[in-house]
Structure formats: C-alpha cells, structure tokens
Amino acid sequence: MIAATVVLLLALVIGVPVAFAIGLSALSYFLLSGANLLVLPQQFIGQLSNLSLISVPFFVLAGELMNRGGVTRRIFAFAEAVVGRVPGNLGHTNVVAAMIFAGMSGSAVADLASVGKIGLKSMRDASYPDNLSLGVIISASTIGPIIPPSINMVIFGSIANVPIGLLFLGGVLPGILTGSMIMLMFALLFWRRKVKVLEPQARQGLWPAFREAFWSLMTPVVLLGAMFTGIATPTEAAIVATLYTLVVAGLIYRELTWATIFEVLLSTAIVSGAILVIIGFAAPLGYVIAREQVAVGLSTLLVGSFKGHVLLLFAVVALLLVVGCFMEVVAALILLTPVLGAALIATGLDPVFVGVLMVYTLGIGLVTPPVGMCLYVGSQISGVRLEKVVAATAPFIVPLVVTMVLMILFPSLITWLPTAVYAK
C-alpha cells in the first residue's frame, strides 16, 4: 500500500496524466502483492458499466448546446432584468445568471466559459474595474457543481453508492446560500471601493425578457421536474435535458447549424472522455483501498482522534481545502471518496451530507491557486494575467468558506430538503 501511494505521488509530480497515474498506482499494488491481475481490467470495465455515469457526457453536451444555441445569452438578459437598477446591478446579475445556468450545466468551468464571458463583456462596457468584475464572475461559477444537476455529485454518488437524486436535492439550499453570500460580498466591495460605473442603458423590461428567455428557463424545470417526479432517473433526465436543449436551440431559436453540432459533439467527447477514463482507472485503486481496509482504519482513527462530529468535520474540510489547491476536483473526488468519504459515512454521518460537503469544499479549490481551474479559465477569457485574477478572486473566497462553515454547524442546510421531499 505504501509503494502504491509512492508511485501515485511520483507519477503526479513528474506530470503523468491523472488517469494513468492512478492506473500505475493500482498496477504496482497488484504486482507487489501478488493479487490477481485480471481483477484490474474487471474493475475498470465494471466501473464504467455504472449506468449513472451515462449522465456525465449528456450534461456536458447540454451545456455546450446552451452556449452555442443562444440559451446562455437569453438567461443573462433575463437575470439582468430581474436585478434591475440596483447599485452594482451587473455584478448581481452575474450571480443570478450563474445560479440559473447552474441548474442546467452542472459544471463550474462551463458556467464561467459561457455566462461569465457574457457577464465580463457587459461589466467592461459599463466601466466596472476588472479587479471587481473578475472576482464576482469567477467565484459565482463555483455554484455550478452545487445547484443540481452536478457532474461532481454524479461521480461521488456512483463511487459511494449514494442516490444521486438525494445528492442533487442536498445541494439546492447551499447553492442558493452561496449565491446570496457572494452578492453580499460584492455589494460590500462595491460600496467600500466607491466604484463609479456608467449608468445602466435602456434594457428589456422583466416581462419581455422573461418571454424571450422562457424556453431557456424551462430547461432546469424539465430536467429537475422529470427527475423528482419520478418520470426519469438522473441519467434519463440528463438525456431529456439534452434533447430539449437541442430542440430549443435548433428549432425554436434556430441558432444551431450542422457544423456547430459537430463541433459540440467533438468537444463533448473530449471533455467527458477525459473524465470517464479517470473514473475507470480509479476503480482498481478503490478495490485496493477496500482490500487493505484503509477506510475502516481511517474511520477508527478519526473517531478516536476527535470528540464529536463538528471537530472532525472541521479537520476534514481543512484537509480538503489543501487538497483542492493542488488537485483537480474530479481527480480528488475519485481518490478521496473511497477512503475519506467511506470513513466519514462509517462514523455515522449522513451519506448525502458527506457527499455535498466534499463536493462543495473541493469546489473551493477551483478558485484557489496553484491548480484552480476557474482562475485559469478566467485569465483566458479576460486576457488578464493570472496573478491579477488571483488577487481579484481572493476576497470572494470568504463567502465560500463562510457558507462551508454554516453547512458544518447546521447540517440541515443539506439534509432538510432531501428528507422533506422523500419523507413518507
């Protein structure tokens, strides 16, 4: 087990892709322990046979279609009409738009590359300073993996065998709370820095904006409605949402061409393929962890080291925050769910609570250097140097951490809605 861990760390340090680093680690264990090598491909194939993982490429595809088909643009216009002319309205508009789009895409990077790009242009046109605009736009993108649907929750649920529908419900209140906290921070910074911006230009009223965005806004209604009414499983709901988006963008808005659809399919194959290969190689490593009873030993250690769940959870989130700084969220979830996730559940914590908290805390790593993906995407779409993007985003980490602390102190923020919906 020690040798397998060393192999994994060395492979990551020298730049081996995460999927193959995980595979090499598992292979080294099988070779050194004399375990049956046939188990390795069996675990790989078995993991990818999990039907819930089919939703991953469809969520990615739906997000790509929304970006290319005019859905995202209409959502931003509607969010702008909702916010109105309050001071710093475009900053709040970005948060509202990110929250709406989060109910469709399930990905922070997708949110930032679509809604964030539109929002940044609008804020620059209105003379908002980049150090404020980038902070609110990049931090708001972290809501994407929390408000359902969520690709990261699909990954956790498929590995930990936790119902994905319950995880989705558990993310609703934390996602709304996060958006509210980010808006409060933006309002405070806007006031303290005495930001001067151009007066809002004439824009659509609320009713015209709603009418224009109606079919776009129906996407999360169709997706979540099909899921929580029992008409479709989370996997089937992802397919329904993709087909619905294709109809809206292609037939109603008429902004999709066959060439665009081909580009979208190619991009989806690349992104989802990378995720699924990592998940596949993680299965043999999960088998190794289970075989060596690492999760059992860790849960015993955790229970013996910390008096009560609150202290335990603060220690765990501190670890996850550090891990999130150095590892991409998907890879971290795949590596830690069989160990840390299983250990926390074994201590008596609600599996849904554990899943949402892990996804949320690791998601903060999206906006923390040196590996924060959203920081790099923000730098790319804005043309601003990375160090300035990091400085702009830093104040907005505070509301994210505050929300995380509130989730630990008040677990019902996560567990109340799943319990209420599925209570008998």
Keywords, separated by commas or semicolons:
globular, mainly alpha
Biggest sheet features: none
Q: How would you sum up the global shape?
A: globular
- Assess the beta-strand content as a share of residues: under 5%
DSSP, total strands: 0
Radius of gyration: 21 Å
Average pLDDT works out at 85
Question: How would you spell out the order of helices and strands?
Answer: HHHHHHHHHHHHHHHHHHHHHH
Write down the domain tally: 1
- Helix share of residues? over 70%
Contiguous helical run count:
22
First-last Cα distance: 44 Å
Q: What would you call the structural class?
A: mainly alpha
Ranges with pLDDT <50 over ≥5 residues? none
Can you give a write-up of this model?
The chain has 424 residues and is mainly α. Helix content is 78%, strand content 0%. α8 crosses α20. The longest helix has 34 residues, at 258-291. The chain starts with a helix and ends with a helix. The model has no long low-confidence stretch (mean pLDDT 85).
Secondary structure: elements and pairs:
Elements: H1 2-13, H2 18-33, H3 39-48, H4 55-68, H5 71-83, H6 89-105, H7 108-125, H8 130-140, H9 151-160, H10 164-170, H11 172-192, H12 206-228, H13 234-252, H14 258-291, H15 294-305, H16 309-326, H17 329-346, H18 351-364, H19 373-382, H20 386-393, H21 397-409, H22 412-422
Helix pairs in contact: 1-2, 2-14, 3-14, 4-7, 4-13, 4-14, 5-6, 5-7, 5-12, 6-7, 6-8, 6-11, 6-12, 7-8, 7-19, 8-11, 8-19, 8-20, 9-17, 9-18, 10-18, 10-22, 11-21, 12-13, 14-17, 15-17, 16-18, 17-18, 18-21, 19-20
